[in-house]
Structures are given as C-alpha cells and as structure tokens.
Amino acid sequence: xxxxxxxxxxxxxxxxxxxxxxxxxxxxxxxxxxxxxxxxxxxxxxxxxxxxxxxxxxxxxxxxxxxxxxxxxxxxxxxxxxxxxxxxxxxxxxxxxxxxxxxxxxxxxxxxxxxxxxxxxxxxxxxxxxxxxxxxxxxxxxxxxxxxxxxxxxxxxxxxxxxxxxxxxxxxxxxxxxxxxxxxxxxxxxxxxxxxxxxxxxxxxxxxxxxxxxxxxxxxxxxxxxxxxxxxxxxxxxxxxxxxxxxxxxxxxxxxxxxxxxxxxx
Length: 266
Fold this sequence. Notes:
Helices cover 36% and strands 15% of the residues. By secondary structure, it is of the alpha/beta class.
C-alpha cells in the first residue's frame, strides 16, 4: 500500500490490490468481486508499528473463508517471539492462518526465508520449483540454533517482560513531552513513538525534521534508533530478544536526555 515500495518496480502483480488496514468493509468489498485468491496481512504493520483493531484479524479471516480466499499472514517482523509471550504475532489474536511467511529473525541475520502452509495447501503444490540458494545448509543450521536458543532461554517471555518495561518508560516520556510525542504503541519488543508538531487530536502534523534531530541527539549519547511511518516520524524500537532490564533502562535514559535537548517538555 506504500507508493515508495512500488515506484520504479510496479507492477509485480498487476491484479494485486491494496486496501486500508483495519477496514473490514473495504476487505469485504474486494472479496465479493469473486476474483481474490488471498488476503495478505501483517499482524502488526512493521513500517509504522500499527496494531489491528480488536477483532479485526479474526473477522478478516472469517470473511476470507466465507468468500473462498486464503488468509496469508506475514510474520517477517512479528515472528519468533517479537510480540512477547507467543512465538507468532498472529497468535496474539487467536487466528490460525492458511499460509505464513517469515524471515529475518529465523536465522539471526543470516539470509533465510520460510513459507509454511496447511497440509491441504502444501499438498496441492505439484509443480517443480528451483531456487539458486534454496536449502542453504549454513542458513538452515543457523535457524535451528536460533530457534533452539529462543525456546531454551524463553526469549518470547523475555520480550513480554522487557516490552512492558520499555512501554512504561515510553509512556512516561510521552507524559513529559506531550507537545512532540503524539502516540506510543506496540506490543512486546516491537514498540513505536510517533513524533508530531501539533498535538491536537485529529490534527497532528508529522514531525519529520524533528525526528532526524532526535536521532542526532541519541547518537551523541550512544543509542541508535530506527524510524518508519509513511512520513518518517515514527521511532521504531525493536531491541534484541535477549535485551536486559539494564539495557532498557539505559536506552530510556538516553531517550529522555535526547528529548530534553530538543525542548518541548511540559
């Protein structure tokens, strides 16, 4: 749905249509056309860390089944314990997809992507396929080791505990800097802080330039933070699943000092 990802490359799939996140009416309108093979969705949108409304994903799955479309879940960013307490982000909403895709966290940095499907769908794939790098033994060994550590060290549970600690600290920063922090959202160790120039609800101006200034302040103090959102004004905070309480507290302290250096406190 983001033009910046399509410009210069489109069309990958001429019949691929993007619909607004959290809009069940838009989804049903497309499904009723009768030509939809699948609905692909992230449990939490990675670019801006946007969460689904309560009941949205389950209702979307039910609509897909009603109209004969597959429900495909993209777990590239939310998978392997990132959202806290569970291995998959989609589990947070009690939904079992027909197909799941995943990458990144599965091999802890080594190149590997995975697709899994229900037995019915998997057995329907009869054609031969070829992949130059498919089945790479080094990446697969790294994935096995990574998943083993995630399970043995209960890192999904650590993501839940440290995510709560991080979220509480970010909410405190929002309370201290209401003129520039428009929103704090996320789940587990996938959190976001949205920076604005006008804190009036419904009329928030994305503070893109301010976000870049904040990054310079955090960098001076030894903290690197990612950004996202359609306007580049969202701090995307997703530390390693092994992050400790001391790590979280240090990051929050640096963020607090950086916000203070920008001004805009109450």
